[in-house]
Amino acid sequence: MGRYIIKRLLLAVLTVFIICALTFFVMHAVPGGPFNREKALSEATVAALNARYGLDKPLMEQFLLYMKGIFHGDFGVSLKNGREISKIIGESFPISAKLGLEAMAVALVLGTVFGSTAALTRNKWPDRLIVFFSTLFTAVPSFVLATLLLLVFCIELGWVPVWSPTTQSYVLPVIALSAYPMAYITRLSKTSMLDALSQDYIRTARAKGVSRFILIFKHALRNSLIPVITYAGPQIAYIITGSMVIETVFTVGGLGSKFVSAIGNRDYTLIMATTIFLATLMVVANVICDLLYKLVDPRIKYD
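RE: above sequence
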């Protein structure tokens, strides 16, 4: 297992490096620059700014210098306000992390419960009701749901503030963020549970007189969680960074909204830092999920 972990970590580092290279060169290939404004700056000013931030050097040299800074933990400064990128991420990421973790916890718990309930009541009214709402939440885009929640509960009813750093204000963003993954996990859990219930070991346990509770929660549910874990790994990493659209709709000052503004401002350093941060979270989450397979199903072997 140790060799497997080392191999996965090396592949993770390679993956992050490839993502860094692709992001860097594609971003610089787009026409325009970070100092383009409606009111054009003089050529001397633009040249001075490019020299200040090292943008006047050859592209490959810029990339090597940037990667050298990354290896030393230096993400540079924002090209728009001169603030350190690490401080920007440190201030905005906790907000996105809290929002994303709460949304993913809701999606995992409710999705697993609803999916298992639908499988155990197959072709009955609870199953049909759960399938209807899971299909509805899968089809409705998150920004549409977020806008409707904002319109009804914030503007019309006034039950929830649009945004303030309180527990109450997290309710609507969490609902909007968790709706799609909850619906997907519900459908995934139902399919996995039905497949687990049809296995021979379930029939054998039932023939031996194993109680229904142990049959479902110890045998069927445990083995049906593997597809859910596979989906949850990268989804947790994605949702922790905060949905860009959801954060924009609810004016949440998280990392997602910072990333959106960085793209609009062509803030190269902030775009690179947030992309690397997200990629690292995705890779780490995938590695952790692969290791969790062993806990869920001891029959899995690591080569």
